[in-house]
Amino acid sequence: MPSPTDFLQYAQWSGIITILFAILTLLTFILKLDIRFRLVGTTGFILVLTAGLFSLSLTPLTHTVIPGAVKYSLIYDNGSTQTVIGVPDQITPSELDATLRQAAINLYSAGRSSLIREPKLTIRARTILHPSPGLSIPLYLGQIKRSLTSRDENNTSIEIYKDKFDKLPKTKII
Q: Is residue 159's pLDDT more than 90?
């Protein structure tokens, strides 16, 4: 996976190509060639591509991996303060703790906003139980709350609902 420094190098090369196309476009306007309007579109497209590559060089694209965490899927995200992740029904409390911590780090974004008094991102973990055919019941196993204003992960509070783990199936599916 390319790193932000790779994207910066790609943006530099794309910027050079953009300048060359801009000069070529200007030259076609001076010489009144028929291709000049096509080159305006091409130059604009390369300019947008350069801006996109540059923006990718500003933000790291890596995700944090915490030992013991299991794969989760993002079920719901309102873009502000509420998020729900889905976890497998064979998860243990220690795996859930690590998974919630990993989700709290990976789902943090400076672009999240909050209109409430205490800006906290709440990430709830759930699984789906199937007690009988055609019946699905969501079971919330825990949650983590983290600050929306600080990237520092020390501002987290984790709640794991240990009584809910008794409702999970006991057999492991291989």
A: yes
